[in-house]
Amino acid sequence: MNLDLLVVVFYFLVIGAVGWLGVRRATTKEDYLVAGRNLGPCLYLGTLSAVVLGGASTIGSVKLGYTYGISGVWLCGALGAGIVVLSTVLAKPLLQLKLYTVSQVLARRYHPAARVTSGAIMLAYDLMVAVTSIIAIGSVMQVMFELPFSTSILLGGGLVVLYSTLGGMWSLTLTDIIQFIIMTVGLMLVLMPMSIVKAGGWEAFASLLPASYYQLSSIGLDTILVFFLIYFFGILIGQDIWQRVFTARSANVARYAGLGAGVYCVLYGVTGALIGMAGKIILPQLANTDGAFAAIAQAVLPAGISGLVAAAALAALMSTASACLLASSTIALEDVLPAIRKRPSGGLVAGRFTTLIMGVIMLGLAFLVRDVMAALTLAYNLLVGGMLIPLVGAIFWQRATSAGAIASMLAGSLCVLGLMYYHGIEANSPIYGGLLAGGVAFVVGSLLTRQSPQPQVQTE
């Protein structure tokens, strides 16, 4: 246990040191928010993969593999498919806009009020995803090292806030590369093969696991559909992902390195599912499948090596937490605060101060929220239910109006919240109802109103 803890402490020190290097690169607001729009293919692939593959894809895929078998790959499969479509279809036109936020794209088509409304929804989404990642960091450290939960949150979350605030996107990019390497080594090259060997090899898989564990549909077609509605479309419209696209040096970097990141996501999902399947053989009677990842790591790995795998899990969580923290800070700086203060967004100092404030709020919420999956589901339901229809309409329907877009955002978000309250957090009805309500409000609102002249977006 002490050796594992030393490995994680060393990992924290490395991340802190690498994050500090980003401070020297972040000399302008563009450096701070989008790494100067200058990332090459290797940095871009690593940072995009790291931000997409967070706690849900790491801990969640292992849990799904333990419960359903290879069908657990669908969570990461939906994420990977979203990255592939984003990279091959949307990346080039997005890069040409030279913007910072999703809401600024909406502002090119709709009234500025739509920018503020969408910014509020996107801010809630990114902040909640950051909170869930911080909670998961605390849970992993609590389970594996028997640290108090509050101490774990302050250690892991405090480090995320520190390097995100100081270096912005450059710190995130440099730390993401370290985290990407650790995730790849820890899960793909260490935990997966050692779990399979511990379970008895492929022969044990064939003889000890039920046939349903080898069916891609065993998780249920309705669940697969919901994964694509939430995660596939969430990737296509999420601020944390778009902000990474804005960092690419060129359209070719975004396209081909992004395609590589999408393939990596799918392979990562296969890795998680196989680890879970091996865990089903090694620990067949786990009472709490949410803790399957930590339990399997402890059962399979010797001291020191299990610390490396714990660092891999923390790397996945910290990359998502830092990305969503900076995304929420960017939205607040560029979309929400200028509307409240009635003046343009600030520069580098304002960016750092906003990130620090959002980080403090993130840590505070992490102490209040207890159900991670519920919070994550709420975040993605709000994002897709409130934002998908207006964004798609802005691109493909010339008759769309600002009133229709705002009505769609409000109707979709409120419907999602109402159905989640009525049917429960894990029900499938909220996302269906949110999209239906948002679609009806969008069409009716647009047909009953006229589009106002398109305002120009001010990004400075």
Automatic annotation (TrEMBL):
Its main location: membrane. Keywords: Cell membrane, Ion transport, Membrane, Sodium, Sodium transport, Symport, Transmembrane, Transmembrane helix, Transport. It is found in: Membrane. It comes from the Bacteria. This is Sodium:solute symporter. The keyword Membrane applies. One of its GO terms (molecular function) is symporter activity. One of its GO terms (biological process) is carboxylic acid transport. InterPro entries: Na/Glc_symporter_sf, Na/solute_symporter, Na/solute_symporter_CS, Sodium:Solute_Symporter. It is a multi-pass membrane protein. The chain crosses the membrane at residues 6-23, 43-66, 72-95, 116-141, 147-165, 177-196, 216-238, 259-283, 303-328, 349-369, 375-397, 404-425, 431-449. Belongs to the sodium:solute symporter (SSF) (TC 2.A.21) family. It holds the Pfam family SSF. Gene3D superfamilies: Sodium/glucose cotransporter. It comes from Serratia inhibens. GO terms for cellular component: plasma membrane.
